[in-house]
């Protein structure tokens, strides 16, 4: 049975118009005014509401084994929370241990992800390098449609790589035509700071932030950009123009120092893509001063930044310098997971939840507050992630032939985010008390109404694995 979304104001990354959107067999098959649809078609009256492509969260960690525990949302609960919040596709990370085969890790993650309700793809983290890793990068690129590789410049001693390994990953990705994405923090300096701070008796969550200052993120952001350039020069055998360097994608960028490194490189002609997250746009580092270990809920890497960085990032979003907004969804319960670091901030599992809230937060504090346009909202939350990660136009667009992944958003009314009502499988919300303007009324995934007026109708395992194509070169 088809479904028609009638009379909504369709918003795309470039447009806004009133239309009906008719979906059949999982695809958008017609867009226009007063469409005639077969009898039996399910009708959603979207009059007075906005209709946009389903959100794509390009950065999640469902059931991630990390820091001695496992992130609290699995692929079922996490993608279901996403659907309730208007996110219909996720890109999660396969993260092998050092010395583990990429293919073994892939099998583990692919198996876990079978319970997804939303469509999903993977980035492959490269946590060490060898001839075997090189072969396996090629294998997952060609056979599994994994066109993006992630390196961690942080987490030294665990999954973080050194600069030699980083260059090897850049070179291998170049040969494949793949995109390298990077978590940018100076890993060795962070460890040095952590050690000194702890030795001085500083154990509370706020020292997590103190041990990971913005300048160390800025340094690493600049470094990966320069290493991409150096790798290109080495391949060319001479100093080439910066535009010849492969683009790098900076994940969860948080601060002015990193943004300035990006601006400098772009000014010289180098291509850099940037992702940020709602927490870095909306929270300030005073969250770490909360009493009774409550600051632990905000322990993530990079950390929440001091006042000033947030508006700098909003400006970067508004001027088009940030391409995507993802969540880095990676929740850990306060009660039995974060507590592991009660007497040592270094042991607090890093991460927090956000997938259910991303679209509504970006609508409320981006569009409704006049910082970005509705088109920019669609672009950074859906269209750009699809383009950058090889899913466009199947995902991220409302066009005939695209997957019928659609959100209907009623801009009226308000609500308040709380851990007591959210669908994340975790006991804290880093957005507790944030007021939201409007709400997702309907989420259509693969042409089926999976969320309607507060009620989830998801089907465990209905999500499909997405093989992706390398498209970033065309951007
Ligand atoms: O604190 C975070 N961000 N946890 C998840 C792993 C990562 O660095 O993305
Ligand atoms: Zn990271
Ligand atoms: Zn992450």
Which labels suit this protein?
19 strands, binds N-(aminocarbonyl)-beta-alanine, globular, binds zinc ion, eight-stranded parallel β-sheet, TIM Barrel, single chain, alpha/beta
Report on this model:
The protein is an alpha/beta fold and 475 residues long. It has helices spanning 75-84, 102-112, 131-144, 163-176, 187-199, 206-210, 214-236, 256-267, 278-282, 309-318, 358-367, 374-388; strands at 3-11, 16-24, 27-32, 42-45, 50-53, 55-60, 65-66, 69-70, 87-94, 119-125, 148-152, 179-183, 248-250, 272-276, 324-325, 406-416, 435-445, 448-452, 455-456. Strands 1, 2, 3, 4, 5, 16, 17, 18 and 19 form a nine-stranded mixed sheet that branches. Strands 6-9-10-11-12-13-14-15 form an eight-stranded parallel sheet. Helix 3 (131-144) runs parallel beside helix 4. The model has no long low-confidence stretch (mean pLDDT 97). Bound molecules: N-(aminocarbonyl)-beta-alanine and zinc ion (2 copies). One zinc ion (ZN) is lined by residues 59, 61, 328, 330.
């Amino acid at each position: 049975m088809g479904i028609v979304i009638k009379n909504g104001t369709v918003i795309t990354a470039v447009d806004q118009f009133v239309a009906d959107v008719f979906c059949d067999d999982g695809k958008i098959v017609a867009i226009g005014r007063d469409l005639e649809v077969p009898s039996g078609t399910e009708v959603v009256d979207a009059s007075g509401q906005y209709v946009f492509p389903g959100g794509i969260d390009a950065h999640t960690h469902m059931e991630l084994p990390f820091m001695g525990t496992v992130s609290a949302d699995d692929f079922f609960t996490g993608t279901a929370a996403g659907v309730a919040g208007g996110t219909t596709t996720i890109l999660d990370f396969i993260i092998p241990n050092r010395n583990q085969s990429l293919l073994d890790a892939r099998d583990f993650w692919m198996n876990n992800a079978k319970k997804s309700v939303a469509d999903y793809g993977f980035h492959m983290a490269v946590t060490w390098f060898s001839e075997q890793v090189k072969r396996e990068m090629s294998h997952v690129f060609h056979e599994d449609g994994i066109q993006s590789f992630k390196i961690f410049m942080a987490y030294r001693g665990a999954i973080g790589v050194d600069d030699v390994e980083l260059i090897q990953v850049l070179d291998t990705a170049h040969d494949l035509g793949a995109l390298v994405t990077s978590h940018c923090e100076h890993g060795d300096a962070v460890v040095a700071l952590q050690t000194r701070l702890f030795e001085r008796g500083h154990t509370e969550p706020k020292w997590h932030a103190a041990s990971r200052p913005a300048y160390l993120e800025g340094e690493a952001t600049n470094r990966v950009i320069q290493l991409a350039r150096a790798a290109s020069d080495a391949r060319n055998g001479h100093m080439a123009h910066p535009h010849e360097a492969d683009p790098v994608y900076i994940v969860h960028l948080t601060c002015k120092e990193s943004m300035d490194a990006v601006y400098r490189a772009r000014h010289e002609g180098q291509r850099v893509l940037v992702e940020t997250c709602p927490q870095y746009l909306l929270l300030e580092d005073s969250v770490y001063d909360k009493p009774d270990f409550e600051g632990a809920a905000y322990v993530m890497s990079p950390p929440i930044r001091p006042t000033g960085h947030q508006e700098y990032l909003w400006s970067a979003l508004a001027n088009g310098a940030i391409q995507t907004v993802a969540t880095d969804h990676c929740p850990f319960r306060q009660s039995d997971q974060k507590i592991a670091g009660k007497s040592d901030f270094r042991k607090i599992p890093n991460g927090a939840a956000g997938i259910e809230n991303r679209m509504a937060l970006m609508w409320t504090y981006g569009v409704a507050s006049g910082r970005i346009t509705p088109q920019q909202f669609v672009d950074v939350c859906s269209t750009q992630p699809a383009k950058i990660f090889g899913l466009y136009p199947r995902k991220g667009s409302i066009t005939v032939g695209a997957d019928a992944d659609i959100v209907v958003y009623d801009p009226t009314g308000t609500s308040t985010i709380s851990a007591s009502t959210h669908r994340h499988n975790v006991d804290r919300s880093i957005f507790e008390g944030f007021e939201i303007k409007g709400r997702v009324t309907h989420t259509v995934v693969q042409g089926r109404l999976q969320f309607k007026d507060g009620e989830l109708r998801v089907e465990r395992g209905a999500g499909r694995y997405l093989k992706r194509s390398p498209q970033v070169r065309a951007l």
